[in-house]
Amino acid sequence: MRTEGEIATNTDPTGSWSLVVPLKPLARAKSRLGASAGEELRPRLALAFAQDTVAAALSCPAVRDVVVVTDDPVARAAVAKLGARTVADVPAAGLDAALEHGVRTVRARRPGAAVAALNADLPALRSGELARVLEFSAAFPRAFVTDAQGIGTTFLSAAPGVELRPAFGGPSRARHLASGAVEVPGPGLDSVRRDVDTADDLRVALALGVGRWTAAVGAGAPRAPVPRPPVRARAEG
After folding, report:
1. Residues 6+ away with beta carbon under 8 Å from 142
2. I want to staple 48 with a disulfide (CB 3.0 to 4.6 A). Which of 9, 18, 31, 217 is the partner?
């Protein structure tokens, strides 16, 4: 990867997608993990999830740059080290407003950008699966990936010249379908669909194989025995 001005890019010049990743201040992020992981570990996990998400996204050849929308200084410094650009959450009006602000920031510099919103809590994300999502999405004005529960959304794209029109939160799959966005077929996209909100989500992500930041922090998280495969290193690509 290289940095041109303030924009982080892959060395592959064919990458065309700009990804916008929203991230709450770490003190407030992943509140549902607090009871199981502990309040001290919770913000560390939230940051680790974001680091693994951003690192995997930037390693995808189809991705030109990643913009993280956050007001957290620790998070800003951590993802900037990975090659992401950061912008403040100027609207401070919730997730959808933060995403729209990130898209405006991208298109102020590159008006013809294809953009996509990507959740910050995808610690098992594989660049190869993300590449397949982006390839499918390129054929439609707007496309999205539903979460593992089939209720929410982990990814939403907009082609050049098309508004993102995010409707995240709760049953967002239904809202994105109703808005005309095309759902990306789910088989083979486990790492893109597996966001982490609860201890059970984290156990599944660990079984899929998480990135190095989550693996390091998650080793200290309490985990009850479950009948799932053992944790293994994440495969590249």
Report:
1. 156, 157, 158, 159, 162, 164, 165, 176, 179, 180, 181, 182
2. 217
